[in-house]
Design a protein that fits this description.
Blueprint: H1 8-13, E1 15-16, E2 22-24, H2 38-44, E3 48-49, H3 55-61
Antiparallel strand pairs: 1-2, 2-3
């Protein structure tokens, strides 16, 4: 059976924590920033945890885990 391919879009966008959870970047910090408060923009700069309901899709996208 041939090797499964890694979805590169998922590999570039996700990071794995030490406990095995995945972290993602938040959307909304590219443009139209003048109407957002400083607190809101700071919060958008931090990583967020991927919801557990998405874990099955991530495992299908990354059959061999994240590349090093």
């Amino acid at each position: 059976m041939p090797k499964m391919k890694t979805r590169k879009c998922a590999a570039k966008r996700l990071k794995r924590t030490g406990t095995g959870k995945y972290r993602r970047n938040r959307a909304g910090k590219r443009h139209i920033l003048t109407k957002k408060t400083r607190k809101h923009k700071n919060r958008l700069g931090k990583d967020a945890e991927v919801k557990p309901s998405e874990n099955s899709r991530i495992k299908a996208s990354l059959p061999y885990g994240l590349p090093k």
